[in-house]
Design brief:
The complex is a heterotrimer. By secondary structure, chain A is of the alpha+beta class. Chain A is about 30% helix and about 30% strand. Classes of the chains: A alpha+beta, B alpha/beta, C alpha+beta.
Chain lengths: ~375, ~500, ~140
């Protein structure tokens, strides 16, 4: 059987997220628990979390999380990194041995500062440079896989049920101002550690439930801009699109939503002149980034997150607020675990993003 | 008269029981196949003149007629096929280049027919176009993506000029001259009703049709017939015709006999003079020359019109397209080797060029590899025969398709492939007023609108079953396609997997 | 009222209207049976000369000469304005033929006159010439005033 990444692999899933608008940091304990009632939305072939604000001590350094298949490639990657970065810290990511999670690869993390001289000769800003380094490792260095590469944030994922993955990585011991989570139900694969969610590039992460029918149109477009979709999953392509639109094109999360879940022409025609012009512009320029087919996603980034459904709302997604907290989940039951009492609970309409920003300066 | 060695290609089979001697066949055959003999009260046929256009068959009120392939045959020979022998006789009779019309009829592979479409099952819902919105609108033109904002942070929304189409189909170039006034009028009015475009071809734009400008693409070909400022400004876009799939590397020929008063005026050439387009544009001997013409046309129209460069699909098409994408052109149109024509040398039509499916796949890939796919839209033609061909073309990477033969079929063409004779019994490829009037443009418009309305329904159904509700999510979505019976190389060029993979 | 109108521009001179008319008024269900070896007497006929041809049939005039001239009261106008002929009353004097300015009345071997009654009396139900015209040269519509 071919390994994940060598064929297209659609999957169904469960997602959840919680965030403090005040930037208060809290552990992943609740979000881990919230995945339990949605157990049947996953099948044990993948689970993962992303935490924001978890590395305050190293917040100025790129935190790379890697899977290695063997020691040999680890050495090779470290040499490659050394030529480009100052490695501030290199350590094994602490894990808890539990019977539910087995066959783990070598799981390592690095805190990195790009070498100024290298940046100068590459004529790139450090984010673009770092994105290219990630692409290079994931495309060309077989047996190594960078699954997290942002600052003061991290993704943690494995083959297993999400609640077990959370315990495995001891996420109850990390504190972050935002957490996203994912339980996976891939439809035709043995599952692979790298194939679990969240997917990310730099500080952008995506957890996703659904199967986008526009996948290859989106992939072939985004690959024109230097992204290499090595895993053939929807979520990977979404993460790259988020990076492309939010970082490289400098668009806002709301504008990103207007592109990937663009309103129908019939809706656009009813908008104000200004909105009409912008939406028509987006649908013309970024027509290849429109995503069709069912999806509910949470895009995480430093200082906030965005939850979004496809424009027909073909996947369930619920949002709720309680004081400074905002919760998102595939099912209300998960929200009730995170916060039994809520001030407001609603089901965002298809294509209508729920965007949460942490107070300026609080992250 | 010396014997000409030829066999009649067809046989007129008339049921004498059914024939009521109404003589419709006789009156409707411009080739004078049918004749009434009053003495014997019988209808006679001269089958040597029959081209199998089926006009008599369609009009016979008692269905007394059948046109069949003549079964009389030379001795069977797998190498020297009957047609090969007949062509030798024809050339020995006349000393001339063999002429043919419409697309290449030879049994080359039709890749559309070896590609299958995906459908959603279980993991992803199909979408019902009768219940949910299903969008087929496309914009053709450059899609730059450098975002600029004004002082208030609002995005500047000026776009380079685009062609807006309600479905990803246009009628491709057919000149007034190669087809009739009424055929042009049918295409123009149908394009207007459908929210798409038709194309003038290289014959200029008749003064009556300037009013359909919004739905017109005006062509500039090597002969520059009918080109002047008002013409360039009349259309939704300007197309530079570098080549045509049916006859790559040669220009169009309109015999002087067809250049009557109206055509002479429209083409801006003297009445009765042959309109012979040069093989190349004599001001374009290289890619940098093309760039000059592209910008000359943009200058002339104040950068308000997208410029299309149309080329025939030839061996090196990917590199050629890459050059065009950097020439300032907004749209590349590629015409495959099965594309039609009003007249072409048979040898050229049947032996030059490559299939559009392979050309499209190669060009789309090349432009993406070079990161310049956004510089241009891609329009493909050359035998796009159905809604499923369109869906496959879009999934391979086209922005839109050009159709012409299908449109002519809708108007009544029966693909007898003798347009060059000028005696089109269906009133399409002719300038004889008695024949031209056979195509009532009101009927023509209706039939074209019907055809594309039906195709639009089918396109929507197919998009829906793939779980796609907007055509742009299909563009270049090659995972939606699988090949059957194709070899590794063909699959590699098409960029698709084999069925079962 | 709805009338049969012709567009010379689109008339091909194919004469199909004549055969469709004759068949529609034959009362038979098969055209071959109806028209084979028959001299047809259609109520519509194609006028032609040189390159001009067009079909002519009863205009159903506001103030029809044929009715005025009918000696037996066979020619009448019904409430919709259709001029019709009652074959039981017609004595075959042919006055109407002489009076019709369009030459749209004919006669057959039964020696009563025949004229277009818009196929309202036969099984066709709507003018057969219109339905069968291959180029929409004959239409059945309200005149644009």
């Amino acid at each position: 059987m071919r390994r994940e990444g060598e064929f297209r692999n659609p999957s169904g899933c469960a997602i959840a997220a919680e965030i403090s608008r005040e930037g208060r940091r809290f552990s992943a304990e609740k979000i881990i628990e919230s995945m339990i009632p949605m157990h049947d939305r996953s099948n044990g072939l993948g689970g993962g979390f992303a935490g924001y604000g978890i590395y305050p001590k190293y917040k100025d350094f790129y935190a790379f999380h890697l899977f290695y298949d063997h020691r040999h490639i680890k050495k090779e990657v470290e040499e490659y990194l050394k030529e480009r970065y100052e490695i501030v810290l290199s350590e094994e990511i602490p894990t808890r041995k539990i019977p539910e999670i087995t066959d783990e690869p070598i799981i390592w993390r690095y805190f990195l500062a790009p070498l100024k001289s290298v940046l100068r000769s590459a004529q790139l800003d450090e984010k673009e440079f770092t994105a290219r380094v990630v692409m290079h490792i994931n495309t060309h260095m077989k047996g190594a896989y960078v699954f997290s590469s942002g600052k003061n944030m991290g993704a943690f994922k494995a083959v297993g049920f999400p609640e077990d993955v959370g315990r495995f990585y001891m996420l109850d011991e990390y504190l972050g101002y935002a957490w996203t989570s994912h339980g996976r139900y891939p439809t035709n694969t043995p599952g692979w550690w790298g194939g679990s969610h969240p997917f990310g590039l730099l500080d952008f992460t995506v957890v996703h439930n659904g199967e986008i029918s526009s996948y290859d149109a989106n992939r072939r477009f985004i690959e024109m801009f230097g992204y290499k979709c090595t895993l053939q999953t929807d979520t990977e392509v979404m993460a790259y699109i988020a990076d492309f639109l939010l970082r490289r094109e400098g668009l806002s999360p709301k504008e990103m939503a207007e592109i990937i879940a663009a309103p129908f022409w019939s809706t656009i025609e009813k908008k104000s002149e200004e909105d009409k012009a912008r939406l028509t512009y987006f649908r013309t320029i970024y027509s290849s980034l429109l995503m069709t087919g069912p999806f509910s996603i949470v895009v995480g980034f430093n200082g906030g997150l965005m939850a979004l459904n496809d424009r027909l709302k073909l996947r369930s997604m619920v949002a709720a607020e309680k004081d400074d907290m905002v919760y998102i989940a595939s099912e209300e039951t998960a929200i009730r675990i995170m916060s039994p009492e809520v001030d407001r609970i609603w089901s965002p309409a298809g294509g209508e993003p729920a965007i949460v920003n942490v107070k300026e300066g609080a992250y | 008269m010396a014997i000409n060695f030829l066999l009649p290609e067809f046989e007129v089979e008339r049921s004498d029981y059914r024939c009521i001697r109404c003589r419709v066949c006789e009156r409707q055959c411009a080739n004078q196949v049918h004749r009434y003999d009053p003495d014997a009260d019988v209808m006679l046929s001269d089958e040597t003149k029959c081209v199998d256009c089926q006009r008599c068959v369609c009009l016979c009120p008692t269905h007394a007629l059948k046109i069949k392939k003549n079964e009389a045959a030379f001795r069977t020979n797998a190498n020297w096929k009957q047609n090969t022998i007949l062509e030798i006789y024809k050339q020995a009779n006349t000393g001339g280049v063999l002429l043919s019309s419409m697309g290449n009829p030879e049994p080359f592979p039709v890749y559309w027919d070896k590609i299958l479409i995906n459908a959603s099952q279980v993991t992803n819902p199909s979408i019902d176009p009768l219940r949910e919105p299903m969008e087929t609108r496309v914009f053709l033109g450059k899609k730059p993506h450098e975002i600029e904002r004004d002082e208030n942070g609002a995005i500047k929304t000026e776009l380079p000029p685009q062609i807006e189409l309600e479905l990803p189909v246009m009628f491709s170039a057919m000149s007034y001259g190669s087809i009739s006034y009424n055929a042009h009028k049918s295409l123009a009015t149908a394009a207007e009703a459908l929210g798409i475009c038709y194309n003038t071809g290289e014959g200029g734009l008749h003064e009556d049709f300037y009013r359909y400008g919004k739905n017109t693409i005006v062509q500039v070909a090597s002969g520059r017939f009918g080109v002047y400022k008002d013409y360039l400004e009349a259309g939704a876009a300007i197309e530079i015709k570098m080549g045509q799939g049916a006859k790559p590397g040669i220009g169009g020929h309109l015999p002087g006999a067809k250049v009557g008063e109206d055509i002479s005026k429209t083409r801006m050439i003297p009445e009765g003079s042959d309109a012979i387009s040069p093989a190349p544009h004599h001001d374009i001997y290289s890619i940098e020359d093309l760039r000059q013409l592209v910008f000359s046309l943009k200058e002339a129209t104040e950068y308000q019109k997208p410029v299309i460069v149309k080329v025939a699909a030839v061996h090196n098409i990917a590199a050629i397209a890459s050059g065009i994408a950097r020439s300032g052109a907004d749209i590349i149109a590629i015409d495959g080797f099965r594309g039609g024509t009003g007249a072409a040398p048979t040898r050229i039509r049947d032996n030059v060029g490559i299939p559009i499916e392979l050309a499209l796949a190669a060009v789309d890939k090349r432009l993406r590899d070079e990161g310049i796919r956004q510089n241009v839209s891609l329009v493909v033609g050359g035998s796009v025969r159905s809604a499923s061909d369109i869906v496959k073309a879009i999934a391979l990477g086209a922005d839109a398709c050009y159709i012409a033969t299908s449109a002519l079929l809708a108007l009544g063409c029966h693909l007898c492939r003798t347009c060059q004779s000028g005696k089109c019994n269906w009133g399409i490829a002719t300038q004889d007023p008695e024949l031209v009037k056979r195509l009532n443009p009101e009927t023509g418009k209706e039939r074209l609108v019907n055809l594309l309305t039906a195709w639009k329904h089918e396109i929507k159904e197919m998009m829906g079953l793939m779980g796609i509700n907007s055509i742009e999510a299909l563009r270049g979505n090659r995972l939606m396609l699988r090949g059957v019976g194709l070899n590794e190389k063909e699959l590699e060029i098409l960029g698709i997997s084999h069925a079962g993979e | 009222m709805k009338r049969v109108y012709v567009h010379e521009e689109w008339c091909l001179g194919c004469h199909l209207c004549e055969y469709n008319c004759a068949f529609a008024n034959s009362g038979l269900s098969d055209m071959v049976k109806a028209l084979k070896n028959q001299k047809i007497t259609p109520r519509i006929h194609v006028e032609e000369g040189g390159k001009i041809h067009y079909a002519v049939s009863c205009r159903h005039c506001e103030d029809p000469m044929c009715i005025k001239g009918c000696i037996s009261g066979a020619m009448t106008k019904d409430k919709d304005g259709t001029v019709t002929i009652n074959h039981d009353k017609c004595v075959g004097c042919l006055s109407c033929m002489l009076l019709c300015p369009y030459g749209c009345i004919t006669t057959d071997e039964n020696e009563t006159v025949l004229k277009c009654e818009l196929c309202l009396k036969n099984s066709c139900g709507a003018p057969a010439c219109v339905q069968g015209c291959p180029n929409r040269a004959i239409v059945y519509e309200e005149a644009e005033v």
